[in-house]
Amino acid sequence: MAKIVYIGADHAGFKLKEKIKSYLKKLGYTVLDQGNLVYQKDDDFTDFAYKVSKAVVKSKNKGILICGTGQGMCVAANKVKGTRAYYAYDKNTAEHAKKHGDANIICFPGYLKEKVAQNIVKTWLNSKFSKKKKYIRRIKKLKKIEKGNLK
Fold this sequence. Notes:
The protein has six helices and five strands; from the N terminus they run E-H-E-H-E-H-E-H-E-H-H. The chain is an alpha/beta fold.
């Protein structure tokens, strides 16, 4: 199976996105950039969160989103059914996102140092979902919330 990662960023994450794209390629990933493809100071994070989320859900691959704080991307991404986007700001939160939440998208701020962002990406990509009953149960509940019927 090909190692594919969708990536997207607004103006506040654009510079770091370009660096992370290069890093992912060095790790052997095919990177599919969902934008913005050029720096545009007035773009909206929502556009790129939507594009990445739709692509990730449809393809069952992984995604990375970067904006000013990472939080806007995370909120927007999680509006798309099937997305489990988690916010990460260090290796611990990146590992937790995958092990406990089986995150298919990771979001982080554009102000991070390149090495910190690389560590987040590498840790998340190399972590595995733990498959403990409690985590499976929680993901099932998230799917029920998406359908509007958590009881």
